[in-house]
Amino acid sequence: MRIAVYSTKPYDRKALEEANERHGHELTFLEARLQANTAALADGHDAVCAFVNDQVGTDVVHQLADQGVELLTLRSAGFNHVDIDTATERGITVVRVPAYSPYAVAEHTVGLMIAVNRRLHRAYNRVRDGNFALEGLLGFDLRSKRVGIIGTGKIGQITARILRGFGCSLRAYDPYPNDEVRDYGVRYVDLDTLFAECDVITLHCPLTPDTHHIIDEEALSKMRDGVMIVNTSRGPLVDTVAVIEGLKSGKIGNLALDVYEEEGDLFFEDLSDRVITDDVFSRLLTFPNVLITAHQAFFTQEALSNIAETTLNNATAYGRGDRTGNELTPENIRPNHGSQPEGEEPAEHEHQG
Ligand code: NAD
What we know:
- The chain is an alpha/beta fold.
- It has helices spanning 10-20, 58-66, 84-89, 102-117, 120-128, 154-165, 179-183, 191-197, 217-221, 240-249, 279-284, 301-320; strands at residues 2-5, 26-29, 47-50, 71-74, 93-95, 146-150, 169-173, 187-188, 200-203, 227-231, 252-257, 290-292, 327-328.
- The longest helix has 20 residues, at 301-320.
- The radius of gyration is 21 Å and the shape is globular.
């Protein structure tokens, strides 16, 4: 297939070119993000390949369909940036990479927890500057702390397993609880109980209308003073203005983010010689107890090669008229998407790599 690959970075290109030796598609690498004023670049292609900050809303879907694009192959698990209903109406098949390495994201999540708790981001700079004082670096043992996991799908489950190894006391909230997660010693509770009981809260649910700003002023008011919040899922799960107030009041003791509500204008680019005009983001950067990474939780060698292979395999299968199970339809994206009804075996997460 002729595939226009948007938002290409050199590492994407390398991984896709290697995987394409097995698939033989015609790939056009575009640095541009997919949005209304770049959709025309896909003219003459059968398929479009998009990443997390590409904007594949209603207008862009219509533009792509008008140009004859039949397939939208996402290099991501999340699909909140795509109008699946319109794509389906317009005959565009949408496929994704449901799990390229849940381990990558879970490990980064726990890395952020430790780093922000022990202020490793500050310690690194201090030692390089010849400052060996410990004031301001005081953390707490994770052992025995109550950690609340919101969303116990593939990434949430692995996070739970890692944290069990640390001796944490685990709670979870998921509208679709999973027995295997209970076997890791996780206790499912309702959201308010999780907010009220936990010292650390980590987000692993998808972004949906239900989960938008799941961490807002009201949620924060139910939490323990000094709570740690970690978000490696999607930026809009967290109301940034509310967490800034929570940081100022001391309600939030630690905040670690790999995603940010308005990250589309910032992340994945080197803006180090530009003025950051997002005042909310700039305010976040002023807190000593905030650690932000720029949507890098997925970024491991294993994940990149799995993303490339699954993305191109999705296109190969589509070209042959086969289904992979990675198709997104209006029916299978509704709230229980990606989870298993209580008691059933979880799909695939052990061998996803
Ligand atoms: P998954 O589909 O396996 O699991 C999501 C879980 O969330 C499911 O168990 C589902 O039942 C649950 N859920 C749905 N609605 C919920 C709600 N209202 N409250 C609580 N839980 C709810 O997904 P996954 O592979 O574990 O990925 C989780 C999220 O991680 C993705 O949606 C994506 O946004 C994010 N992600 C981030 C990165 C990164 O680099 N930072 C990489 C991959 C995925």
